[in-house]
Amino acid sequence: MASTISPAAAAAALASIATPTTLVGQHQLYTRIRLATPADVPHIHKLIYQMAVFQNETHLFTATESSLATTLFNSPPFQSFTVFILEVSSNPFKNIHSPAFLPIERTVLVDHVAADPEAETFKSGVVNENDDDDDDVTVAGFVLFVPSYTTFAGKPGFHVEDLLVRECYRRKGFGKMLLSAVAEQAVKMGFKRVEWSVLEWNVNAIKFYEEMGAKVLTEWRVCRLTGDALEAYGDANY
Amino acid sequence: MASTISPAAAAAALASIATPTTLVGQHQLYTRIRLATPADVPHIHKLIYQMAVFQNETHLFTATESSLATTLFNSPPFQSFTVFILEVSSNPFKNIHSPAFLPIERTVLVDHVAADPEAETFKSGVVNENDDDDDDVTVAGFVLFVPSYTTFAGKPGFHVEDLLVRECYRRKGFGKMLLSAVAEQAVKMGFKRVEWSVLEWNVNAIKFYEEMGAKVLTEWRVCRLTGDALEAYGDANY
Hints:
Chains A, B: Pfam families: Acetyltransf_1. Chains A, B: Keywords: Acyltransferase, Transferase. Chains A, B: InterPro entries: Acyl_CoA_acyltransferase, Diverse_Substrate_AcTransf, GNAT_dom. Chains A, B: This is N-acetyltransferase domain-containing protein. The structure is a homodimer. Chain A is α+β, with helices and mostly antiparallel strands. The first copy, chain A, has helices spanning about 5-20, 40-55, 65-70, 175-190, 205-210, 225-230; strands at about 25-35, 80-90, 105-110, 140-150, 155-165, 195-200, 215, 220-225. Chain A has a six-stranded mixed β-sheet, sandwiched between helices. Chains A and B meet through helix 2, helix 3, strand 4, strand 5 and helix 4 of A and helix 2, helix 3, strand 4, strand 5 and helix 4 of B.
């Protein structure tokens, strides 16, 4: 009831819109979305594995740190395969040098910060300026995307290949932050489309994507040629 | 009935497997798949428009020759947006210089060559060596594809964005030739996947793709963010 809120508490609540302030029971979390570097490969590799576990497809997981390192960083950012890393910290981030993409920093108030059982494993590998080994920067998720092409518009777009937020950081809006960062970059570059895939039974995800403004194309199906069926085309006599 | 075929005709039919020979009522057609060049832009533009007509989506067609020319040729072939052009001719092709991709030439026997009402419009713009203005090389179709990424494999793939064979050249196996050329290139480059989309009610296309070895992913749906819904993300305060 409004009458039980003191003027001071009301002022604090209003102030928190502009400058988040920790209220009782809430925790302040600093988040940053930045471009991945080769130093992130061990984390990216583990995140992809967690995605394979989540999708019950570990039998399809053959990526190695080496295969990622040799394929992900061969082009300037946004011209081919591009990875954004989501980091979280309980302290403000120190600056990193990233001329191709200004990192997106947000401070969020969360009701509850679950203990991160893999905090050590996912300690961020980025060397900060004036590093004093006192950082608690942790990799919480990633998104991998590639340029696509909208022929009808004669303009590029982005296709989001994969997005994952680690279990203990879910339900905090981080998935939306990663996807929004891709959309924002698309607009900046004059791209006309962002596309991704969703499992048709994942109604929560579909609702969430529709709230973000996306349309689900119900009539289209993806055709995939892989494995031996693809290799057969390597023989010129197919 | 077999008994009505003369030994000479049988020999000719067998010979045609190795070296196609024109039989009664059949026509020999030379085909070539080659990389597109900026000189092909007017044809690519018209082919995309024909696709918009075919899909009843001309209201979405905003591509211009200029938008295609400025976006399609900024990277070496296969590293970003790539276009293969399918040409047909009633005469053997003259050589073209194409170090990045050896053109794929096939001679096909077709039962019937329909008159091409747009032969002049689609006269191929490639200047052949020793050009004597006597060519009848015509652009019959195209495929536009871009690299994608298979995270579980840690390897690239190709996503086929669009494929079109002009009306009077359909039902001759040319669509398969274009798609096979992309698959062959994927294998050559060590890529692990070729994907494309199909309308779920297009049962003939689905049957055809399955015969080519592709699997239709029935559970996945494509989410698309475009137009004003996408532009909204250009405002950092979304």
